[in-house]
Amino acid sequence: MIEKLTNVEAFATAFQLKSCSRYVDYTPFSNDIGFSVQRPYPQDCRYKPPRLKDGTPDSVALIAIRYEPERREPKNPNVIPITVRVGAYSRYMAGHMDYQFDDPECPTEDSILVSNKTPKPVTLTATDKYFYDHERDTLITSDGHEIQGIDVLNEMYDSNVATVDRMKGLILQWKLRSQNRTAAMCDSIRKLLEWLLNSMCGRKLEPRDITHGIWGEYQPEDVKFLKTEKMDIFGYSASKRVIVSFCILVLLGYSILHWCQYTSPWLQGIFSINLLIIAFSIVAIALLDHALPKLLLRTINLMIRLRFKIMTATFKFV
After folding, report:
1. Do 9 and 142 fall within a single domain?
2. Packing angle between helix 274-286 and helix 240-260, nearest 10 degrees?
3. How far apart are CA 271 and CA 192, in angstroms?
4. What does the pLDDT look like over 99-141, one tens digit per residue?
């Protein structure tokens, strides 16, 4: 059944555009299976778009929809993700570098000044909210419920309009600020982990693929040894930074225990026998030299996945 949606027209048919005159300027994509449509903002919307001399609004809501079989899950190949994006679109600026007020097709200067004083709708993207189910031959939501194509357009349009609503707009701004702050926190934690990987373990990240660490996770082969001198301790050879980190941790642990006046018979037993001291040191250094870099790499990748999930999260407004 997948053959039914190998062209744009078959895909657009699922959205019943011919039955709804509110959506205009249907434009199929040239290189992908998808299309865009436009719809004017309502008269009572807080956003006031620039207008032409005859009063026609220049800026409209542009909804772009793309059918993405390359993102389908291997476990469920008949369910195809659909990405929907909606935002304010200036018809005039789409074909011009700047406003030319002597051009009869240009919005008036007064309407632009008025528009700039009103809140502009926030561009929204839904990446994992809508799907095309080829088994049922219908559009579905992420929870598996059937949905009409025209309802997909209406939901995204209403969500875009809601971003300038007084109350819903405040909620949106709060959500966006929280989203950005949480993503920034993930970046800060990731930078700290990369610093620990460098300072404590004598490693650095040099990805072969430039997308690793940006859109994708780092791979084990992306972790490289720093060109630093090695040291031997009890016959175990490791990077100088690993040995120094081990010594700092031992001194720090001893200082904390001494300050807390804590005594442990187990630790006293270890440090009273030379062979146990050597065994403990070698195992601890080996963990710093091998296990810790792997743990740090996994945590760095976790921060990358978490940040991507946060930044691609969609918000519901209506």
Report:
1. yes
2. 120
3. 33
4. 999 999 999 999 999 999 999 998 888 888 899 998 888 899 9
Domain that holds residue 289: 187-311
The whole-number pLDDT of residue 263 equals: 75
- Total number of domains constituting the chain: 2
CA 34, distance to chain mean position in Å, is 22
H or E element that contains 118: none
Buried b (16+ CB within 10 A) or exposed e, 150-182: bebbbbbbebbbbbbbeebbeebeeeeeeeeee
Helix (H) or strand (E) holding 9: helix 8-13
Tens digit of each residue's pLDDT (9 = 90 or more) over 31-68: 889 999 999 999 989 999 999 999 999 999 999 999 99
Same domain flag for 194 and 151:
no
Q: Are 23 and 38 in contact (CB under 8 A)?
A: yes
Would you say 131 and 58 are in contact if contact means Cβ atoms under 8 Å apart? no
CB 119, CB 64: distance < 8 Å: no
